[in-house]
Amino acid sequence: MRKITLLIHCKDQKGIIAAVTNFIVKVEGNIIYIDQHVDVEQNVFFMRLETELTNASIPLDSIKTNFEQTIARDFQMSWDFYSKETKPKMALFVSKYNHCLFDILGRHSAGELDIEIPLIISNHIDLKPIADQFNIPFYHVPFTKDNKEEGEKRQIELLQQYQITFIVLARYMQIITPKLIALYKNKIINIHHSFLPAFPGAKPYHSAFKRGVKIIGATSHYVTEELDEGPIIEQDITRVSHINSIEDFIMKGRDLERTVLARAIKLHSERKVMVFENKTVVFY
Amino acid sequence: MRKITLLIHCKDQKGIIAAVTNFIVKVEGNIIYIDQHVDVEQNVFFMRLETELTNASIPLDSIKTNFEQTIARDFQMSWDFYSKETKPKMALFVSKYNHCLFDILGRHSAGELDIEIPLIISNHIDLKPIADQFNIPFYHVPFTKDNKEEGEKRQIELLQQYQITFIVLARYMQIITPKLIALYKNKIINIHHSFLPAFPGAKPYHSAFKRGVKIIGATSHYVTEELDEGPIIEQDITRVSHINSIEDFIMKGRDLERTVLARAIKLHSERKVMVFENKTVVFY
Amino acid sequence: MRKITLLIHCKDQKGIIAAVTNFIVKVEGNIIYIDQHVDVEQNVFFMRLETELTNASIPLDSIKTNFEQTIARDFQMSWDFYSKETKPKMALFVSKYNHCLFDILGRHSAGELDIEIPLIISNHIDLKPIADQFNIPFYHVPFTKDNKEEGEKRQIELLQQYQITFIVLARYMQIITPKLIALYKNKIINIHHSFLPAFPGAKPYHSAFKRGVKIIGATSHYVTEELDEGPIIEQDITRVSHINSIEDFIMKGRDLERTVLARAIKLHSERKVMVFENKTVVFY
Amino acid sequence: MRKITLLIHCKDQKGIIAAVTNFIVKVEGNIIYIDQHVDVEQNVFFMRLETELTNASIPLDSIKTNFEQTIARDFQMSWDFYSKETKPKMALFVSKYNHCLFDILGRHSAGELDIEIPLIISNHIDLKPIADQFNIPFYHVPFTKDNKEEGEKRQIELLQQYQITFIVLARYMQIITPKLIALYKNKIINIHHSFLPAFPGAKPYHSAFKRGVKIIGATSHYVTEELDEGPIIEQDITRVSHINSIEDFIMKGRDLERTVLARAIKLHSERKVMVFENKTVVFY
After folding, report:
1. Interior/surface letters D231-242, b for 16+ CB within 10 angstroms, e for the rest
2. With a cut of 0.90, is the ipTM above it?
C-alpha cells in the first residue's frame, strides 16, 4: 500500500482541517496520523498527515495535481507530498572528531535510520578508515581561506552527483558557505556542543566550565548564515558538578552530541520537522 | 466569547475528523486546539478539541442536541462538552503528611489551578490548622476497620453536599471504598511515592533503598479497586546514590510527589486526560 | 551530642586530610561525613566535614582555638565551624510574584527547612496577606530610583535588627545595592528564570520563546554586582515544544523556579555550598 | 609517574581515613582523588583513592606488602591496588541485537574506553560481520538446554585463554550459568531493558506498554543467580506517551540501553564501583 506524508503550512483560516481530511477521504486515503499546530502570534497553520492510499488505481500524480488545483490554491498553502518509498539521501560532513561519525554509521548499519548515506565529505583525511570500515565513499575536500571557492565548487559537485537531499555536519569544523546554505535551505543539520543560545561559537565546554554551570547541553539546528543562530531542532542536557574537569565536560558532552544529533537526523528524515521564521515545529 | 472543550472517543472509522471539524465550522466555532489519537491495538479513536463559539445567538444546548443527534449517533461516540465557565470542584483527602497539601493550596492561592476547593476531608485532625490558614472547610471523618460504612457514608454525604466533581488523595493513608470508587470512576487521583509498577503498596522508599536503585519516582494515577494498579496520569523521577539515606529518599521524594500530583490535578481539571481500558491518553 | 560542620579551603598541599582527620580523632570527634575537592586549575583544596563531639567536657571554644593555632595556621586555611544548634536566619525579599513565596513558606511550615524566617521585606504591599497568613512580619520598603539610599538604609536596619544571616530574593524585582551585596557577600541567593548564561536580564521567557528553544531552565545563584553573573548554586530545566505559548513557558517555569530556589536555600542553609572565584563547590 | 587506584572496604572504625592518608604521605604518594562512604546501616566504610607515586625508587610490591601488614591488617580491610598501566580485559557476549555492540565498539574505537576487548562470544553467528568489521576475534559458542555443560566449558576456556577480567552481556539472550557467575563474581555486567525492579524478565517493553507507564527505563547491573536481581550500577529513563507504539518504546529504549550500558562499562573499568550486600557504591 502506498504511504504518503503530507506537510502543509499556510495562513490560519477556518475550515482547513475539514477541507484536507475531506480531500483524503475522497481519494480513498486512510489517515493513520494527523497533527496540526497553529502559531497564534504569526497566524500560521501547520499540518502533518500520514495516509495510506487504499485504491491503487488512482495515480499519485493525479492526486497531487488535484490537491494543487483545489485546496492548496484555495488556502494558498506551502505543501509537500513525500512518498515513503523514496529514502532521503544524506551527506555526512566531518573533520577529525569521530564519535558522532561512529554513532551515525552504527545506527545506520543497525537499521535505525531509514535513509541512504551515499558519501562522506571531509576537510581532513583522518577519518577515512572509518568510512572504509563501513564501506561508504569518502571524499577529501580541503577547505581553507585560500581555496574557499574551489572547495565549495567541489562540495556542490559531489552533492549533486550523489543527488543528496540533506546534509549533516557531524562535528564538521568549517564554516559552510552562503551559496551552499542557500542551495540546502533548512536541509543542513549541525550539532553544536552547548545549550544554545548559551555559549555559541568556539570552545563552549571551556566557557561552560569557566562559568561554573551545573548543567551542560547540546543543540542540533539547521544552518543559517548567522553562526549558531539557525532554527533549533532538538536539545538535551546533562548534569555536571565541581568534581568534573573540562575533560569530563567534553566526555559527557560527546554522549549528548551523539544522541541529540541522531534524534535530529531521525526527525528530519521522517519529515517531522517544519521550519517557519527561524523556529521549528516538530511533530513527534 | 464562549469557550468549549469537546472530548470524544469511539471506534476508529473513516471520516471522523472531517465530520467533527465540519460540525464546528457549521456552528460558527473557531477551533483553537485540536488533537487526536488512534489506539491502533484497540482500534479506538480519541479527540480533544477546544473551540470559541463566535455566534452568541446559538444556544449551547441546541449545539449539544444537534451534536448528539447527528455525529455522536452516527459514529457511536462517547463524548462530553465542557464549558470553561464551570470550574471543576475538587475535594482534598489528607491524613498527616502536609507537604502535598501546602503545595496544592499554595498553587491554588497563587492562581495556578482553575478549580474550586470547597472542602478538605481527613481521617485525622492534625492538618486542620492548614485548612484554617487557607480558609477551607475541614471535615474530620475518622475511618477505621470498625467504622468503614459510617465513614464512607459521611464522605459521600459531604461530596454530594459540596457537588464535588473530582477527588484528590494528597497522601491520604486509607483505602478508598469500592462504592466511592464506583461513584467517582476515573475521578479520584492518587499520588503514589514510587515509580509504578515498581514498589506498589506500603513503604516504597524503604524498598527502593533496600534494592539499591539509582533513581526513585512518583506516580499519579486514577484509583481503581486494585491497589496502585489504576490508569497512570503522570510520573517523574529523580536520581539517588549510595550517599543518600532513607531520609534523603523521603525528602527528595516529597518534591516528586508535590510536582507529579500538581501536574495530574492540572491535567485532569483542564480536561486533558481521557481513560480507556486502564490507560490514559493525555493531550498536552 | 554536639554536631559540628567544618568548612575549609586553602592552597592544596600534601597532608591536609591526614592532619584534619587526626585533629578530629584527637578531640574525640566521630566523623559522620567528610568530602573534599581539589580545584586542580586553581590549586585550591576544599573540605566539608561533619562530626559528633563525643566528649562533652571539651568546650567548643577550646577546640576552635586549638584548630586555629595549629592546623588552620600551618595550612593557612579559610575555615568555619558551624554548630547545628544555631539555625540560619533568612530574610525573604519579594515583590509581586507569589509562587516562590508560597512554596518557601509551605516548605518551612512543613518542617523541610532547618532555618528561621524572621521577616519578609517587599517593595510592594501586595503580598502582605501571605505573610500574615503564615504569621511572618512583613515590611514594606519602597525602593525606587529616587529613594535608593533611604531604601537601602531601611533594608540594612531591618536585616541587622533581626540578625539575618542570609537573604533570599524570591522573584524580587529590584536591583540590590552594592553596599548590601558587600555586607552579605555570597549570602544573597537569587532565582533567575532562565538557564544562565542564556537569557540574562529581563523577560527571559519571552526571549526563549522567540529563539525557539526546546528546553527552558532556571538558575539560582549568589548575587554579585554583575547582574546574573554570580556563582551558580543550582540549575534545572524542563522541555518545551512548539505547542507551548509564552504563557505555558511562564507556567512551566514557575515549577522550575520554585524547585531550584528551594534546593539552593536548603543547600546554603545546610552549609553545603562553598564559593571560590565566582564558582561554587556543592557538597551533596 | 605511577598512578595507583586503591579500593577499600571494612567495618567502620575511628581513624581509618587518617591512617590511610598518612600511609600515602609516607610512601611519597600525591593524593589526586579521595572519596569515602559510610554505610550507616551496615556499619561499613568504603574508600576510593587515586595517588601518583612520586618516588620511583620505592617498588610497588613493597608498598603493597607494607600496606597489607600494617593498615589492612589493623583494620581488617578488603582492599585492592590497581595500576593504571594494566588495562582491564573485557569479553563481550552477544546474541542477535546489534545496537549495543555497535555502540561499544564505536566508543572503543573512538578511544573512550580504556580497556582491551580481546574477543566476542555469541550463541548465534549473526553478528560475526560486525566483529570482523572492527577486527575483533568472534567465537560462536552455541548454548542451548542440551549443550549447557559443553557451552559453559567452552566459554570458560575462552575467557581464561584471553585472561578476561570482566564480561559484558550486550543484550546476550541466554542465562549465564552459576559456575560462570561464581568465577566472575560482580564482574559480569548485564543491561536490562526496563527500570528495575519494574518489569524483570522477558519482554519488558511489552509489559510497560500494557501498563501504560509514562516513563521507560534501562538498568545495568551485575549478574547474580537471581535473574535481574543483582546489584544495580546505573539506570536511566526517557519519557513516553500514548502516541508511542511498542515499536517506539523499543526504539527509544535502544538509546537508553546503549547509554546506560556504556556508562556501566566505563565506571566498572575505571574501578569506580564497589559492591556490598547486593548494592553498589559508585564513586563518580
Report:
1. bbbbbbbeebbb
2. yes
